[in-house]
Amino acid sequence: MHMMTVKQWGVWAVLLWPCLLTMSIPLDCKEEQGSLSRCLSISQEKLLDRVIQHAELIYRVSEESCSMFEEMFVPFPLRLQRNQAGYACITKALPIPSSKSEIQQISDKWLLHSVLMLVQSWIEPLVYLQTTLDRYDDAPDMLLNKTKWVSEKLISLEQGVVVLIKKMLDEGTLTTTNSEQGIFQYDVQPEMLESVMRDYTLLSCFKKDAHKMETFLKLLKCRQTDKYNCA
């Protein structure tokens, strides 16, 4: 299997990164006073489009980050181990639909709340991930920058989904405490291999959940325009 070098990653990432930044439409909903009035003034349709675009970019960058980390730090024999016991995703216990039939049957309300639960569950772990990646001697700046960018965009996505819930469902937000059940021991420094596998699991699980967020939001968009033909 061809292993991409740090130099090759750097050339490829430098070419792509500015494109992602210029394609991204701002989704900062909060005013200085802390209210979400910026997004409240946007139409529901345009806000949903912006939220979807944010979710698409978050998934794309998470995919790139996971691949970069895998190529650089995870020996090939260990790449299958993240699916074994002890490396379960932190959102596994959430009541999130997983099969296609389940997803098709849930309401618009539960689609939105599922996205919000996933977003809120990952805010703290991604902050932790930034901290632990800083300890890698050979971690390229591009990987660190991508992780920081995703973490910031996730907060913007949370704000947008909160406003969508208010606009579409006319109700308050759903608060979760799922991050408290996390797998992290912040005061314990794991051995290097264990740290690599834990971070690899985080990146892999976040990539999977980011794809779910994108899928749920696109299904919601489809239901707004073509309710009876959404696959």
Automatic annotation (TrEMBL):
GO molecular function, one term: growth hormone receptor binding
GO CC entries: extracellular space
Cross-referenced SUPFAM superfamilies: 4-helical cytokines
Annotated signal sequence range: 1-24
Entry keywords, A to Z: Disulfide bond, Glycoprotein, Hormone, Secreted, Signal
An example Gene Ontology biological process: response to nutrient levels
Localization per Swiss-Prot or TrEMBL: Secreted
Predominant subcellular localization, coarse grouping: secreted
UniProt keyword NADP, yes or no: no
Keyword Glycoprotein among UniProt keywords: yes
Family membership: Belongs to the somatotropin/prolactin family.
UniProt protein name: Somatolactin
Species per Swiss-Prot/TrEMBL record: Seriola quinqueradiata (Five-ray yellowtail)
Highest classification ranks of the organism: Eukaryota, Metazoa, Chordata, Craniata, Vertebrata
